[in-house]
Amino acid sequence: MEQLILHTSASRGHANHGWLESRHTFSFADYHHPQRMNFGVLRVLNDDIVDPGQGFSTHPHNNMEIISIPLEGVLEHRDSMGNVALIRKGDVQVMSAGSGIRHSEYNKSDVDVVKFLQIWVIPNKRNVEPRYDQITLDLKLLHNNLYQILSPDLLDEGVWIHQDAWFSLGNFDEGYAISYKQHKPGNGLYAFVLKGNFNIQGVALELRDGLGITGAEQLQITAGSNDAALLLMEVPMQL
Question: Whose CA, among 3, 45, 83, 127, lies 20 to 30 Å from 202?
Answer without folding.
Answer: 45
